[in-house]
Structure formats: structure tokens, C-alpha cells
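Action item from last week, closing it out:
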Amino acid sequence: MTELFAVDGTVNDEKLTELLAVGHETQHLDYKRGWDLSKSEAGRKSRLELAVCVAAFANTRLGGYIVVGADNDGSLDHDEPPIDPRQFDEANLSQIVESFISGTVTLHVKVHERAARLVAVIFVGPTQDRLPVIFTKEGTVEPQNPRSAVMFRPGQVYVRRGTKCVPAEHRDWAEVLARLVDQIRAEAREVASDEIQQIMAATPPTSERALRLAVDFDSEPRAFADTLAESAQSESFGRLLRRRVRATAWHREDPNDLSAVLPMLDRLFIAGAHAILEDDEGLLNTVLTCMVDLYRRPMKERAGDLAGALLWRTIAAGAMALGGLAVREEAWAFVGKLAMPPDLSPVREFEGSSRYQSWIRHASTMASRAHLLGAVDQPLPGALIRFARVKAGELPLLADDVTGGASFELHGPILDQDAVLDSLCQFDFLWCTLALLADPSHAGFQTLPGFATFYAHRTVPVIEQLVDRSSLRYELRTALEPEWANALIALDDVATRYGQSTVGWAWSMHGSPSVQQFIAEWGPTSPGLA
């Protein structure tokens, strides 16, 4: 499951703010109201809970965070006794946990003061040897009581499933062993590389057999990207891509489980980036067909269901990351397809409902209703742009063209110079404009101007290109100049109000002389622009 925060091991004050803002527990975040970790009998249950939480997080691919001193909604707890900071020393926590388990865990801990309360942030890293942590002792809450509850037994492996720490079952072992499997695969690929190259040298490069050997959809993202230079040009690659997507499972029974879908989506985003960089329209069409196929799978779900919302948010963030790359490459025809795929425009929430012209608007609405764009009472401004920025930094090819622009944290600081973020804001503006051209009478419904939560200088350059170059407008969409002018006026109005309501400032493009001139020439009189 894609998180609203970075699972990066930091435990500083900014990280605490980030974790509390999530507002609910996740697979990688657990809130505890308080723990007494003393060696007394009263502290035994808390020590056992600590061992269970640490073991479960250590057996996940990324690890996780425990915030001690917070309620389940991320608010500070004022009912429990204050925690003792001496008990939350890293060495003390490690000693407690390792007295019950076999395996070495990685812990980073820091105690902070918030609103006159002490709050501990504990990061549990995945095991360094990639092998699961196993309990070696029985975790009886009251050892002298034969009827006492037993929290764990020797030989048990605990995992984090959803928001709970539970004993591993058959379905959990793929997650537990994921990092070990990745290592084995990497070593096997390295050993087999020479043999594969020899086979490919003796096999016609266009054959599907050679492609199947060359393209490993389960390889690491960078390795997959490296194979595209030769394999993506073949027609057989498109067939392989479509077959792999059709075979990708999406579990309606467990809506949080995107374990099979997310890696496939990442490969699609990488292939899409390759298509943009190589100006390969055929490949981009294939990638979009596959993305639309995955997007449609939960379309029968009603609005607000987590099952579809998480998948839709992930796909929309990837489409935006590709759109930002297309803007930087000035691949304007690709921008239009990414904004409104021909096979999925317009999009209905459900049968008989209103239609969104862009899947990005649909995904944003569904994700917001499912509280996947920030905390319940505190949505993250420009959330989808931020998710796209994170995705662009995670995957190869999506931001390789920008030196030093790879890393980005969802809740992290915004740099003044960030070409990737600028291009995402510009793509965000363009999809909103295209949606308005398709349905000019419903500006507020068809758009969601996340770009208005960032300073206007990030977006205005593409608006100036739009009004100065008729060829650019033609590549994006066939429309008359008055239609473009009306769309710009309407979007400026929506963006101004959206910026005021979310971040407290009035976004506007009226400071650009070329935009003012275009509006004055082609649009109706507008006090803010003409």
C-alpha cells in the first residue's frame, strides 16, 4: 500500500509532525497511547507488545514506525501516564526485544516534547540479513497465572497485516521473504546475464522468445529500464506487456492488497517514460491501454470505496509523473493523451452518475472521499502533484533528465528550484484546461487545480507558451481561440478560489502580459485579466 509518508528511518521532529498528520494507523504506522517498559510486572505487557510490534515491522519489506503517546487518530494522548524517556533508549529497547527473538533488529528512537507531553518515535527497520525475525520464548502476560494470555509462542513469525500485528499465515510469506527473493533474483540475473546475451545473439531480435528472455518484468526498476532500449522497439514487446497486465491480479476481497498491481504499474510508468523520451507514440498508446485496463477493474465499485480509490490514486499519480516528463520534453500530443485517454474519457463514478472528462479528476475525487489524499480533517494541499513528484523520484527515466531533481518527500520542504515539480504543476494546469474545453459549463466539477497550492511562477511558463504558440494549442486539442480564452478565464477563477481555501493565497496568472494580451484579444471582458 502506498503511504502518505516516507518510511525512511528518520525520527526527527519533522517526521513526528508527518506521522501525526496521517491521522490513522497503516501497514507501516502504529500509534500507542503509552507504554510502561519498566522491568516490573506491571510493565511486562508493554514489553511484550513492544516485541510483537518490532518483530512484525522487521518482517516487512520497508519496516515501520511506532509513535508512543498518540491516540489512534494521531492526536496526542493526555489520559495515559507520561512515558519515561529513559525507557526509550535504543539500547534498552533492543535489549527488551532481542530477549524474546532470534534475529537482529534495527531501531532508531527519539523522544520529543509536544504540548507538554513526551512522545516517542520508534523506527523499526527491516532485518539486515533479509531473514525473518522468529520468537524464541513464550510471551505470557502473567507467568504465574496458568490462565494468562499468551501473546506469542516459540517459533512464531509475526507480520504487519493491514493495521494489525498478527502471526504469519501462508498468505503473508510472500511479504516476509520479499527482500530475500529480490536478492536471490538479482544474484541469479547477474549470473545468467552472459548466457542470455549469448542466446539473444543467436536468436533474431524480433522474436518473442528472445524478448521473453531479455525482459524480466519482475526485475528491479533500473534493470527493467535498461532492457527497454532494445526490446521496446519490437511489436512483440507490446503483446508481452498487454499479456502481463491481463494476468496481473487485483484482489477485491482484500482491497488494501496491491502487491501484484503496484510493481506492474511501475513497469508501465517506466515503459511510458521510455516512449516519451524516444517519441514512440505506438508504445505510449500500448502503455495507456494497459493503464486504462487496470483503471477499469474496480469501476463497478461505488464512490468512496477504498478498493478502487487506492488503485486510481496510484495510476493517476503515475499519469501525472509521465505528463510532467512530456511537458519537459515538449511532447504536447502525449500530454493530451495522458490527460484524457481516448479509451477512458469521460469517466463515470458509477452507472448513471455525472461524468468527469479526465481520469485525473475522477481519481482525485475518489481518493479524497476515501481519505487517501491526507488526514481526514487535514487534506494535503496539492496532494496528487506531491504523489506524482514522489513517484517521479522513485522510478528510473521519469526524472533522469533533471540533474539533482530525483528525491522528494511527500510532506517534505518545497525547493525553490525543482524542474520536476514545475513540470507537474504545468501538466496539472493543462489537463484542467483540456477538461474545461471538453465541458466548459462545469469548471468547478471538471477541474481540481492542485497547481494553485504552489506559487504561480511554476505554472505560468506553460501558460505563456500556450497563448503564444497556436501550434502547441493545436497539438493539445482542436479548439478556437475564444474557446481557449474562456477556458483560461474560468480556470483562473477556480484556481484563485481553490488557492485561497486551501493554502490561504490567491493564485493568479494575470501578472503575465502575454496572457493578458491573449485574453483581451480573444476573451470576453474580465476585470482580473483584461
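Closing note: The first strand starts at residue 29 and ends at 32.
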